[in-house]
Structure formats: structure tokens, C-alpha cells
Design goal:
11 helices; mainly alpha; 0% strand
Length: 236
């Protein structure tokens, strides 16, 4: 079906779908107890994903993006073992879609939302690329690209720095450890080098790439400041 014009979104029925998905997300993520992956993060991703979508020459389906952004962390394997929902995300989300005022199952958007949710994460993309399973759908699905870019933008810049430190605290990993120390490989600072500094090169949308530049630079400047301050302590 043709995507509605961005200026027409959301209709009252679409807004009701969004409210239901947000409530579902809040209730499910209440058990996560991790400020780096909480409803505030999800709402930032949702807002950014819609901003990216509206900046594209031809906006994709905004309701698919809206719902996928709201639900993108609900089944995060760090907090929800796949065995707990029998490795079947479609069945997990079925009660939510059955209760919505729009029949997104009939028009295919329920499946589209679940597919985006299943493929949005950095680790999933990395794994599929390594297996040669990152295919034509992944390259063509603009709804996936908008949600991916929005999620990754929240891992960059000021929010990215805060979230990295918060996750390290939740998992009891060091914020910083000197080279050669046993704590260094799992430290927050090492996570910048292992993942966060590589995100800029994996952005999918033109507006996402533009936003990533300043956020990437902020992280580079932050890491330089950490090195400077640690060097000053060593000289004391």
C-alpha cells in the first residue's frame, strides 16, 4: 500500500496504535532496570527515526517506522532470552497487533514491524554480514534503515557517552583501565574502540550520516580528553 504523506501522519487510528505500542513497550521494559536501554532511550529513537524518515525525498511508511522504533528493544536478548518467547517474535507481538484499531496483520505492516525489530541491532547486522546473509531486503528496506540509524545515533555523541557509562555500571565493568590490565578489554572506553567509533561508517540514510558526523567528533574529542586526563594523573 502507498505510504501516506508525512503531513497527514498520524491519523487518529494511527495515533491510537502508537499509544498502544508505547504502553506495551513500557510494560515490557519495566523489568530491564538499565538506564542505557529504557523507555527514554526508546522515545529518543522513535523521535529521531521519524525525523530521518520525514527528511527523505520520498517518506517511507511512517506507522511502520513509529511502531518498529517503539518496539525495537522489547526483545533485546541482553534482557529477554529468546527461549522465553519460544524464539517466535511474531507470536510474542501477536496480542498487541490483534488489539490495535487498524488491522496491520491484513495489510502486511505487522509482519514488516516485526521484521524490522528482528534485524535492527548492530550485532544482528554484524552476524548476518559475516554469514553472507545480509541481503536485498536489508539493503532496500528504508523503514529498517530509519530505525537502525536512529538507534545508532543514540549510541553516539553525548547520549552515547552517557549510555556507555551507564551500561558499564549496570554490568559492573570498569569505565577505564590502563592497557594491559585485566579490566581493560571489557571497559567502557574499550567499547568506543570496539563498536561506537565504527557506527558512523554504517549509517544507512543521508540525514542519518549528516547527524552522525558531529556526534562522532564529540566522542573523538571525549576520548582525547580521557587520554589527556589519564596522562596528567600519571605525571602527578
Amino acid at each position: 500500500m502507498a505510504a501516506p504523506r508525512a503531513s497527514e501522519y498520524p491519523s487518529p487510528e494511527e495515533a491510537a496504535c502508537v499509544r498502544a505500542a508505547e504502553k506495551f513497550m513500557e510494560e515490557t521494559m519495566a523489568a530491564f532496570s538499565d538506564p542505557s536501554h529504557d523507555p527514554h532511550h526508546v522515545r529518543r529513537v522513535r523521535r529521531t527515526a521519524l525525523r530521518l524518515a520525514r527528511a527523505l525525498p520520498t517518506p517511507p511508511d511512517l506507522l511502520t517506522i513509529d511502531l518498529a522504533a517503539l518496539l525495537h528493544d522489547v526483545l533485546d536478548a541482553k534482557y529477554v532470552p529468546p527461549a522465553s518467547y519460544n524464539h517466535d517474535p511474531r507470536a510474542f507481538f501477536a496480542p498487541l497487533f490483534a488489539a490495535l484499531p487498524l488491522d496491520l496483520r491484513a495489510d502486511g505492516r505487522a509482519d514488516a514491524v516485526v521484521r524490522v525489530v528482528r534485524h535492527v541491532s548492530w550485532s544482528t547486522e554484524k552476524r548476518l554480514r559475516a554469514r553472507g546473509e545480509w541481503g536485498a531486503w536489508h539493503e532496500a528496506c528504508v523503514e529498517l534503515h530509519c530505525v537502525q540509524d536512529a538507534d545508532r545515533l543514540d549510541a553516539l555523541g553525548a547520549f552515547g557517552i552517557m549510555r556507555c557509562a551507564a551500561y558499564s555500571a549496570v554490568t559492573n565493568h570498569a569505565l577505564h583501565a590502563p592497557a594491559g590490565h585485566a579490566d581493560q578489554p571489557a571497559s567502557a572506553i574499550q567499547h568506543f574502540h570496539d563498536k561506537l567509533l565504527h557506527i558512523r561508517g554504517r549509517m544507512k540514510t543521508a540525514p542519518g550520516r549528516a547527524l552522525a558526523e558531529a556526534r562522532h567528533k564529540l566522542m573523538v574529542d571525549f576520548l582525547a580528553a580521557v587520554d589527556t586526563e589519564y596522562g596528567e594523573d600519571a605525571d602527578a
